[in-house]
Structure formats: C-alpha cells, structure tokens
Amino acid sequence: MALEEGKDSGVTFRINPSRAFPLRLLQFSLVFLALGLGFSVFSMYTTRYFKIQNVVPIAQTILEQTPIKPCFEEPISLESWIRPPSKLMHTMNDSELLWRASLVPRIKSYPFKRVPKIAFMFLTKGPLPMAPLWERFFKGNEGRYSIYIHSMPSYDPDFPPSSVFYKRQIPSQVAEWGRMSMCEAERRLLANALLDISNEWFILLSEACIPLNNFSIVYRYISRSRYSFMGSFDEPGPYGRGRYNGNMAPVVNLTDWRKGSQWFEINRVLAVKIVEDTTYYPKFEEFCRPACYVDEHYFQTMLSIETPHLLANRSLTYVDWSRGGAHPATFGKGDTDKDFFKKITEGKTCLYNNQPTTLCFLFARKFAPSALEPLLELASDVLGF
Ligand SMILES: *[C@@H]1O[C@H](CO)[C@@H](O)[C@H](O)[C@H]1NC(C)=O
Ligand SMILES: *[C@@H]1O[C@H](CO)[C@@H](O)[C@H](O)[C@H]1NC(C)=O
Ligand SMILES: *[C@@H]1O[C@H](CO)[C@@H](O)[C@H](O)[C@H]1NC(C)=O
Ligand SMILES: *[C@@H]1O[C@H](CO)[C@@H](O)[C@H](O)[C@H]1NC(C)=O
C-alpha cells in the first residue's frame, strides 16, 4: 500500500503540474488574445482615422504599395525577365530609373525569339495634333514598334483605348527649351524605352513631326543601317565652337565639340551609353547653358568622343532653317502640298552605309495642327501609307 500510495503520490505529483500547466497556458493565451484583439482594433481605428483625416498620406502609400504575396509563388521563368512592363507608369525616380535602364545582358545572343522593335519617343508639351496621321502609319505593324510619350506633367491625355497612344505616357517632368531639363526628358524617354528588352532602335520625335514614308520603309532603313542617325558636326563660328566653354576641358576639348539636331535615331548600345553617362553630364550641366543650347551639343559631342565610328553624323528628320532665326519654319495648311514634298526629297543625296542615296529623311518637322487635313489627304499618294 505504502508503495502504491507512494506510487500514487508519485503519479499525482507528476500529473498535477502537467494538468495545471495547460490551465495557466490557457490563461496566458487568453490575455494575449485579448491584447492582440485590442491592438488590431486600435490599429484599424487609427488607420481609418488617419485615412479620413488624410494626416499621414505616407502611411497610406506604404499600405497601398505593400504587395500581397500569393500563397503559391510562380517559379521564376525567363518570360518574367523579358516581358515588357505592363504599365508605363512607375514610382522610380530618375536615379533609380537610369540605374535600372543601364543593366545590360553580357551574352550577345538571345535565348528566345526577339523581334527587334523601334521605340518612337514623343517629346511633347501636351496634345499630339498629328496623332491621326501616326495612327495610320503604325496600323498593321504591331509587334515592331513601341510608343513612349513625355509631356508636361500637368497635361492629362485623353486617347481612347483603341488608340496606339493610349496609356503610353511615361512619368514626366517640366522640360525647357535649350536647357538641361530637355536632355533629362530625353534620357527619361530612353530609359523607359530601354526597360523593354525588345526595343532596339530609339527615335526622338516631337508633336510637330510627321513620317515621310510608310512603316516598312522606315523599319528597313533603320534596321539595316550600320550607323545611328545623330547629327554631329564641328561648326566654326559663334553658334558652333563659340558655345564651347573652356572649363569643360579635359573631359571635352574644343576639338571634340560637336553640334547637331536634337532629333536623333540611335541603337540600343548608344541609348545605354546616354543613360549611364556620369562623366559628361556634370560638365554640360554646369558649362552649357543658354546661349549654349545643350540639346544641340551634349549627346552629339559625347557620342562622337565615345563611339564616333557608330554615328552617321546626320539626322533623319528634315527641318527648314532657311527662313533664319532661332526657330525653324513651321508648315501649315497652305504650305503642305505635293510640291512641298517634292522639294523636301528631290535633289538631295547623302550617305547610307557608305553608299550615296537619295533617301535622306524619314521624318520632317515642324507642322502646325492645320497641316493635318492636307496631310491625311496626301498620305496614301505621297507618303506611301
Ligand atoms: C531617388 O531616391 C533615392 C532613394 O530615396 C535617393 O537617394 C536619390 O537621391 C533620388 N534621386 C532623385 C533624382 O531624386
Ligand atoms: C583633351 O586634351 C587633353 C590634353 O591634351 C587630353 O589629355 C585629353 O585626353 C583630351 N580629351 C579628350 C576627350 O580627348
Ligand atoms: C562621323 O564623324 C566621325 C568624326 O566625328 C567619323 O569618325 C565617322 O567616321 C563619321 N561617320 C560616318 C558614317 O561618316
Ligand atoms: C511602302 O511604300 C513603298 C514605296 O512607296 C511601296 O512600294 C510599298 O508597297 C509600301 N508598303 C506598304 C506596306 O504599304
């Protein structure tokens, strides 16, 4: 009995605390549960309170940006790296964007079928009056082009979903004529376009530009060219070398100084060179201010120092400076007829892949909105689309 009692007491001794333990655990859990509930109710209340009061938009932004992780994440496929971004709007600032855009694959051949595209980059103030003409130009060529628009941040575009320009705006900032903010806008366009791995050629256009040929001709001309079309010449006199500032040496010497049209066409290699540049940028930023118009010198000079053998040294965009002054001629309703296009294209020769050709311009500017109507009438006959 004593043994049994001893056993019993022993058992009791061993069992009792283990019975008491879950009870205490339960009490503890209840306290924690109550605390947790209280806290979540409190945080829900404060979140709602702050949301309504709009006191801390930052807290709200963080809440909105926190991605909700799916229960089963998809395994990473190549597709996720090469798919172009589904939306052009993003929250990257310029430093982040340029850094991201400067990432380059080191293996030259693509392990997937890549149809190289032309990125048409529209640098505009607001509306695109020539949009109906461009729509016709692009029609039927899906998969061989992409469109990017940089406009004044205050401008709210209203393209219908059926338009090729629908939701093609990139995050933009104010760009002033002849100032570094203009080159920054151009770099922003290039960087956004570089995020699509299929973009191989990059054309800068304005709202006053029109295509002079159909898409097939433009695509063939650009894709088969060994050179990029960046105007880049050494001009003596006050509007050329006269704009050079000696403080740029030795990064840029007077003999390296180039001038050329702002409206360029470049390939992916040169586009990366422009977005990754931290050498020339500070020099031009500091020492090329009006009357040094930086958009006529920065990329032109930089690329002719870095990669002169890749430049055609001419622009693909026709412009008429013959009327003199700081701005080229603008063509309106009265100017735009068959003879006008004859004048642009006739009697000109230039080099294409080191061979003379008469097809020198694929685009032209500047056209006033009133020119749209005659242009649409002439397009199929004169422009070939
Ligand atoms: C972009 O954001 C990063 C991180 O906040 C900051 O270091 C950088 O200076 C910003 N760049 C610009 C151009 O605002
Ligand atoms: C400019 O000139 C200096 C001195 O002659 C030279 O060291 C430097 O490499 C030149 N810069 C370029 C971009 O050629
Ligand atoms: C363009 O000019 C550079 C000198 O600035 C020269 O090296 C290059 O060969 C020229 N390109 C063509 C296609 O003529
Ligand atoms: C493009 O224009 C050229 C020359 O005008 C013409 O021969 C060709 O058929 C046109 N292509 C298309 C797809 O319209």
From TrEMBL:
The keyword Transmembrane helix applies. InterPro entries: BC10-like, Glyco_trans_14. Pfam families: Branch. It is found in: Membrane. The chain crosses the membrane at residues 25-45. GO terms for cellular component: membrane. It is a single-pass type II membrane protein. Signal peptide: none annotated. Its main location: membrane. Keywords: Glycoprotein, Glycosyltransferase, Membrane, Transferase, Transmembrane, Transmembrane helix. One of its GO terms (molecular function) is glycosyltransferase activity. The keyword Transferase applies. This is Glycosyl transferase.
